[in-house]
Design goal:
Elements: E1 6-7, H1 13-22, H2 28-38, H3 53-62, E2 63-64, E3 69-75, E4 81-86, E5 92-99, E6 104-107, E7 111-112, E8 130-131, H4 134-147, E9 162-165, H5 175-186, E10 198-202, H6 206-215, E11 219-223, H7 229-235, H8 244-252, E12 263-269, H9 277-286, E13 292-298, H10 312-324, H11 355-361
Parallel strand pairs: 1-2, 6-9, 9-10, 10-11, 11-12, 12-13
Antiparallel strand pairs: 3-4, 4-5, 5-6, 7-8
Helix pairs in contact: 1-2, 4-5, 9-10
Bound molecules: S-adenosyl-L-homocysteine and iron/sulfur cluster.
Iron/sulfur cluster (SF4) binds next to loops.
């Protein structure tokens, strides 16, 4: 009879300790294995030098350290890299690496597709939706670090320095798995990326904003996109459940906000919809008193999208109001456009199945 082997990337450090003790391995093995996996990027037990031959053999019988299957890699002329990853159930997700002067940022997906259907977002139009597991989230980072040869994780000049949960999906509708994978990324004995360099982007799932703040303490980015409820209800329909006033108040109380730890407000610039000088003034008013950064994202059109990008003139005028209010350089430079790596273009070609069928198979958090 074949035993079902344990995928070690699905385990938190605590889980790994329990896994070792329930299999009659000493607890300290957990620390050793953890370091080999997350400091050195090992994919097999063979090279784990401080583990006895017998234990290596046994570990190999009961567990494995997987890598996600890469179906395509695209490299942009600006250095941005995008991976299309095929999961075991054949659904697909995307992961992006964006090198900048002083940092290298990995943009991770948290779900296959997204249930929230924001009207400007390509991911939201994908019919197949499911939560990713912690192993599938951390697995994306492993793929990037393997490709960039960024092991061991503690070395000087590391290529991956920052993480943003801004790929496919709504991370706060998959909190359990997202938080587990973020804790793995932050572990000092492993990949060791500081909470200050991790940003969680959400369309505003209020109950989980508080939880993420106290449990993870990572940076928060809010997909605002409109400054009144009428328009936000249309652009970001989850606003009907969690409205602007409640959202802003929740953000005001996000733990440990200061000038060095600010909330990022993402605002997609859509021509003739949300891009007037009045909107900009209202935006500044709404967030006043909250330590903030503003990120204006020129709308990225996709085939069949209903909207157009704001004109350069509107973006400049909007940005000026924001800069005059004391916020620095707010316009996000598009990256990787030649490989469609930009926000809102992330959508896999996974076979479409009717959502009612999916919901029966994989109930998501009720929202
Ligand atoms: N679901 C989360 C994180 C993923 S989306 C969220 O909504 O925050 C990451 C960012 O890309 C969000 O700010 C989202 O609003 C933005 N985005 C989505 N589609 C876009 C598009 N077509 N053009 C520009 N930005 C877009
Ligand atoms: Fe989902 Fe974010 Fe896209 Fe909205 S913008 S549909 S929340 S991925």
């Amino acid at each position: 009879m074949s035993i079902l082997k344990q995928d070690l990337l699905e385990l938190s450090f605590e889980d790994l300790k329990t896994f070792c003790t329930t299999n009659n391995l000493p607890k300290f093995r957990a620390t050793q294995i953890w370091r080999w996996i997350y400091c050195f990027g090992l994919k097999s037990f063979e090279d784990m030098k401080n583990i006895s031959k017998t234990d290596k053999y046994f570990l190999n019988e009961i567990s494995y350290i997987p890598r996600l299957e890469i179906s395509e890699i695209h490299k942009s002329k600006d250095g941005t890299i995008k991976w299309l990853i095929k999961l075991k159930d054949k659904s697909e997700i995307e992961t992006v690496y964006i090198p900048q002067d002083d940092r290298g940022t990995v943009c991770l997906s948290s779900q296959v597709g997204c249930t929230l259907n924001c009207s400007f977002c390509h991911t939201g139009t994908q019919a197949l939706v499911r939560n990713l597991t912690a192993g599938e989230i951390i697995g994306q980072l492993m793929v990037v670090m393997d490709h960039l040869q960024d092991w061991p994780s503690g070395k000087n000049g590391r290529k991956v320095t920052n993480i943003v949960m801004m790929g496919m999906g709504e991370p706060l509708l998959n909190y359990e798995e997202v938080s587990k994978s973020i804790k793995i990324m932050m572990s000092d004995d492993g990949i060791s990326i500081s909470r200050r360099r991790i940003t969680l982007s959400t369309s505003g799932i209020i109950p989980f904003i508080d939880i993420a703040g106290s449990d993870l303490g990572v940076n928060l980015a809010i997909s605002l996109h409109a400054v009144n409820d009428d328009l936000r209800n249309k652009l970001v329909p989850i606003n009907k459940k969690y409205n602007l006033e409640e959202l802003i108040n929740t953000c005001r109380n996000y733990p440990n906000l200061s000038n060095s730890r600010r909330i990022t407000w993402e605002y997609v610039m859509i021509r003739g919809i949300n891009d007037t000088v009045e909107d900009a003034k209202k935006l500044v008013e709404l967030i006043s008193g909250i330590p903030s950064k503003i990120n204006l994202i020129p709308f990225n059109p996709w085939p069949g999208s209903l909207f157009e990008t704001s004109s350069q003139k509107s973006i400049d005028q909007f940005a000026k109001v924001i800069m005059d209010a004391g916020y620095a350089s707010p316009v996000r430079k598009p990256r990787g456009q030649d490989i469609y790596a930009a926000c809102g273009q992330l959508k896999s070609e996974t076979e479409k199945i009717r959502r009612s069928q999916i919901n029966k198979l994989m109930p998501l958090h009720s929202i």
